[in-house]
Amino acid sequence: MTVLREAVHADDPARAVIAALIGFHAIRSGQLRALTLTDARDGRLHLPDRTILLAPPLPERLAAWLDHRTERCRPPPNPHLLINTKTVVRLGQVSYGWINKTLGLSAQAVGEDRILDEAIATGGDLRRLGDLFGLSVKAAERYTATLDHPDLTDEAIATVIDASPTPLTGRMASSPPNGTTHAPATSRRTYDDASR
Question: Can you give the residue ranges of every domain in the chain?
Answer without folding.
Answer: 2-103, 107-194
